[in-house]
Design goal:
Shape: globular
Number of strands: 8
Helix content: 25-40%
CATH topology: Rossmann fold
Structural class: alpha/beta
Number of helices: 8
Mean pLDDT: 98
Radius of gyration: 18 Å
Strand content: 15-25%
Number of domains: 1
Strand order of the largest sheet: 1-2-4-3-5-6-7-8
Low-confidence stretches: none
CATH class: Alpha Beta
Order of helices and strands: EEEHEHHEHEHHEHEH
């Protein structure tokens, strides 16, 4: 990376929505950072079981797209909410039977922290995630409307009744045992609350989060007169790999440049 201008990466904890639990955060500021300026900010998140994004390792666990965004003049922020991996059973079980709810409250604590920073433009905060992160992006855009100006959700779970049984029922129990939990987490029930610009992306042969998830969301949006943006990758499974990954990240970057 010697030939590249990298932003500064900081790792630090803030308190979760329960007021007690430490949540680890990563903040990347642009190269040639000027604390007197106001910067747009992109929150990258996942939030689901087994995954830890913030690590005390090379680049704090960030990827080079985040460094690109910093070069382009964005602050880039990530928080591992309760429910994510490598923090013990109690931490991961905090979201049991209510996927999306505690994670959202913790992410909102992260937004609260960002808004306390004098160099973050509170009116220009965007959010992006894939898979469980796509579910969380769409959750944040609709269950906390107005918090984010722009969202990009990839391969998003929309309705947990359509997701893999061995995963879903481990964290949610069955739909018959936990109807309220499934109803609250079902993003079809929150489409009409959408504010800001939302782009959903899906591979047409996704065998993990089947295409039906985002198509049903798109149909519900059209039925209710809600505008959103939509892009598909024909022939791609759950993650857009190979040379087309460049196309994907160009698409995401352009969306933030245009709307944030």
């Amino acid at each position: 990376m010697a030939d590249y201008q990298l932003g500064q990466t900081k790792l630090f904890p803030i308190k979760a929505a329960d007021g007690q639990t430490d949540l680890y955060c990563r903040l990347i500021t642009p190269p040639n950072f000027d604390p007197s300026k106001k910067y747009p900010t992109v929150v990258y998140l996942y939030g689901g079981p087994h995954v830890q994004l913030v690590t005390d390792s090379w680049l704090g666990g960030s990827n080079l797209w985040m460094q690109l965004m910093a070069q382009k003049g964005y602050v880039v922020f990530t928080l591992d909410s309760r429910g994510s991996g490598n923090r013990g059973s109690a931490f991961e079980r905090a979201t049991f039977r209510q996927l999306g709810t505690q994670e959202m409250q913790d992410q909102l604590k992260g937004v609260e922290y960002l808004k306390s920073l004098p160099y973050v433009d509170a009116a220009r905060i965007g959010i992006h995630g894939w898979s469980f992160g796509g579910f969380m992006t769409t959750t944040m855009m609709t269950r906390s409307p107005g918090t984010f100006k722009v969202g990009v959700g990839g391969g998003p779970v929309i309705d947990w009744r359509l997701y893999e049984v061995m995963y879903t029922e481990r964290y949610m129990d069955t739909p018959q045992e936990n109807p309220e939990g499934y109803k609250q987490a079902n993003l079809l029930n929150h489409v009409d609350k959408l504010q800001g610009r939302l782009l959903l992306i899906h591979g047409t042969v996704d065998d993990v989060v089947v295409w039906q998830h985002s198509l049903s969301y798109l149909k519900a949006a059209v039925d209710k007169g809600i505008q959103l943006d939509y892009f598909v990758y024909p022939g791609h499974p759950h993650n857009v790999g190979g040379k087309d990954r460049v196309h994907l990240y160009t698409k995401i970057t352009q969306y933030f440049d245009e709307h944030l």
